[in-house]
Amino acid sequence: MRPHTLPDPRFFHRSGPFPLSYIARHIAAEPPDDTSGSMMIDDIGSVETAGPGEITVFCDARYLDKFLTTRASATVTSHDLARHKSNRSGLLFVEDPRLAYAKIGHLFYPSSPLVPGVDSRALLDPTAVIGDGCQIDAGAVISAGVQVGARCHIGFHAVVGPGVVIGDDCVIGANTAVSHALIGDRVRIESCVTIGSQGFGFVPGPKGLLRMLQLGRVVIEDAVEIGANCAIDRGATGDTVIGAGTVIDNLVQIGHNVRIGQKSVLCGQVGIAGSTEIGDGVMIGGQSAISDHLVIGSGARIAGKSGVMRNVKPGEAVGGYPAVPIRQWHRQSSALSRLLRRKSNDG
Amino acid sequence: MRPHTLPDPRFFHRSGPFPLSYIARHIAAEPPDDTSGSMMIDDIGSVETAGPGEITVFCDARYLDKFLTTRASATVTSHDLARHKSNRSGLLFVEDPRLAYAKIGHLFYPSSPLVPGVDSRALLDPTAVIGDGCQIDAGAVISAGVQVGARCHIGFHAVVGPGVVIGDDCVIGANTAVSHALIGDRVRIESCVTIGSQGFGFVPGPKGLLRMLQLGRVVIEDAVEIGANCAIDRGATGDTVIGAGTVIDNLVQIGHNVRIGQKSVLCGQVGIAGSTEIGDGVMIGGQSAISDHLVIGSGARIAGKSGVMRNVKPGEAVGGYPAVPIRQWHRQSSALSRLLRRKSNDG
Amino acid sequence: MRPHTLPDPRFFHRSGPFPLSYIARHIAAEPPDDTSGSMMIDDIGSVETAGPGEITVFCDARYLDKFLTTRASATVTSHDLARHKSNRSGLLFVEDPRLAYAKIGHLFYPSSPLVPGVDSRALLDPTAVIGDGCQIDAGAVISAGVQVGARCHIGFHAVVGPGVVIGDDCVIGANTAVSHALIGDRVRIESCVTIGSQGFGFVPGPKGLLRMLQLGRVVIEDAVEIGANCAIDRGATGDTVIGAGTVIDNLVQIGHNVRIGQKSVLCGQVGIAGSTEIGDGVMIGGQSAISDHLVIGSGARIAGKSGVMRNVKPGEAVGGYPAVPIRQWHRQSSALSRLLRRKSNDG
Description:
The structure is a homotrimer.
Chain A: E1 18-19, H1 20-26, H2 34-37, E2 40-41, E3 43-44, E4 54-57, H3 64-69, E5 74-77, E6 91-93, H4 97-108, E7 117-118, E8 123-124, E9 129-130, E10 135-136, E11 141-142, E12 147-148, E13 153-154, E14 159-160, E15 165-166, E16 171-172, E17 177-178, E18 181-183, E19 188-189, E20 194-197, E21 202-205, E22 208-211, E23 218-220, E24 225-226, E25 231-233, E26 240-242, E27 247-248, E28 253-254, E29 259-260, E30 265-266, E31 271-272, E32 277-278, E33 283-284, E34 289-290, E35 295-296, E36 301-302, E37 307-308, E38 317-320, E39 323-325, H5 326-346
Parallel strand pairs in A: 3-4, 4-5, 5-6, 7-10, 8-11, 9-12, 10-13, 11-14, 12-15, 13-16, 14-17, 15-18, 16-19, 17-20, 18-23, 19-24, 20-25, 23-26, 24-27, 25-28, 26-29, 27-30, 28-31, 29-32, 30-33, 31-34, 32-35, 33-36, 34-37, 36-38
Antiparallel strand pairs in A: 1-2, 21-22, 38-39
């Protein structure tokens, strides 16, 4: 009996089977011996649960015992990790087993293929231009002047506002609203996301707060992924920019004129206030907030739930509220505990 | 004149009137005397504003004065609370007056009845199975292979993805998107919620971050309630699980493979990072964050806005960031204040 | 070549040109001299990038150098700021240049005009009443008994529940769901917002948590602006109230029976727990949380990411978690640093 942790066929469709030699080529592994190479592999599985006909991964020395006793027919690993295994049949050697296994996963469980066409219940403005092979679901709104590249999937009830440009191979999730945006290739946006909303800037006047004009755009570069229920404001003057390859988790707030570099990672419920610049490869932990008009250098790491109120240097790691260098933050927490113990002794 | 705090008939439809004896039976109260029992009650109201023909509740000794002077015809209370009242006419005695009064509220103001049927503008895949008595609103999308139980309400533009299973007596709010999910009975999901989105896990590669396959599901057990604009990711391998009777407020983020037990309470804007396990009857205050791969024991209490970075024992109460036992957190705050006073004296 | 920071004509449509004298009247500036007054102005621009035919603003003495060398044909400023400029041609003098410039911005870039009419794919209940000049987009749902004032824009797939009242000149964003609400004039609500959801109050019972009846409303007064992906619960008994002119950023959570005064400012991801009262002109920084049943006085200022657990007096400024007077919070942070240095010296 397959344990329930294996993919539910109601939701995931398996491809294959593939000969091990095919899988080896797919991940640029050293070719397996001839016997192994012709073996048919029909699924992936964890090192504990995978059985005959399945391939698993061994990428963490702590699980050596499990690797040595796995029932899987094949294992992706590295020469170094597998050095204790005498029988090397069925092993695929790569430099980065974790990355290779992720690629094998996508081979066995590819994204659902698009069903090209524009549903008759979608709302397609006659001036919009749709690329080849797109799937436009019912209720989707493609407004005047919109350009959509090839092989995009625009989900149910997604609303794409006037003039928006979307590149190739993008996914816009169901019930998402996008306006004032230029979107690159391979961008994936989840459900219930708002992109291009007005920035939050006001001038106080005698009758109340007057919203400052928000005349900028949202520029989303290639291969950006944006999680569910995020909100990304357009620039006031100039653009809000999300750099290529940056990934954003759910419920994240990006203020107007924020500029994020490439391959940065923003975890769930992060908030970035207006005009802050974030470099490349920055890691921002969940629920962190970064104040407005700051500069966060490339490679910086911001611990979860931090409140960043000053610039962060490239490569610097900070934590706490207000955020300080991460070692100082850990020392502060310890110092507070010691202070309490001393007080108790005094008391 | 009825004060404006009473239910607005544009939004709420009152049932009744009911004889007091009927109400008594409904809440399993001791039967009232015959004169009281035949009295007709036509609405509920607060102890201060309720008048003749109305029923109120007295469940907190601090409001004794108001109870002694209430104009309400009937009051739900307990023997202990009402011991100072000499005239016991119109009193209904129960062990838990607050719970009883909540039940009376639902008696007088039942949920709007369903209008069974599938709107012609809903999108119903021919392979979907819909139970008896369901109301499927216009724009709702019921995808291939979906199973919906009896007496469900699928709101306007709600999108139910392929293969999703929904039990009996569920409500899926307007503009909500559900995929990769198995949902029990009596589950209520508000508007603009995303369920089943991809988890946030990536492997760094030479071309950027490659998303790890997210081949799990979201399992939502019976009687779960999920607030507006929440995001719940599906598991990577295995499931994200929300246990029976757990209630979740608005704008909450649940990461992949999180497992929550039964009858836990998650307040607004809480975030739970991937693979964390939360027991039964856990209370999590608003805006708290819990790191990934932790275990929070049953009956634990986490103060609002805490940042939990370690396991929490069953029944333990913690607060602060990083979260510590709640008493220690209060002492830390006090110690900081004292430290400042001493500094001022030194200075 | 125009720098890319100027408005993208795909998204923004410029009005004008206007003679400078017309602009002066629009902002109630002192009339310019005759030569300047007849000059045609065709766009706005920053003090650095604006050129001939354009108008800019000088409202901050730090940018004096840029003002003295601007190529703009006209500048909005004040007598005091401009006192170092000998050639006063093309200057418009007002008391508040920033506010005046915001007004000029709206003159040149007015909101897109409505396209009045009810789209044939909107769902309009026959008992709903729609004012003159409204634009009701496809997929919008206007339920039984709804009243919509004049010149409103109800976006694609917005769901307006039974009995909701909306005033004049309102905007309800795409994919937003509104129920149990009375909305004033000039209210603007962004996309993917939920208004009128059930409050988060439960009574524990033998079978689990029973939700307390939520029989109140959401009352949104005139000129309120609500950002994307917010969630505002209706009252339990009585109303949740957002006072006139209050502005709310994205992803904000407002609990049941919260009452917010006039012209307050709630930044992104703020959370207000049930029954808390917030006065007029209160500023609440991003990601702050305010506990339930508190009173925050008018003019109070709450720093970003604060956790407010006690009442705040009118005009008081607080910060931190738990929030304390802002000076004390800054001293706490400094004291912690000093404590660490002393420890290091000891060590």
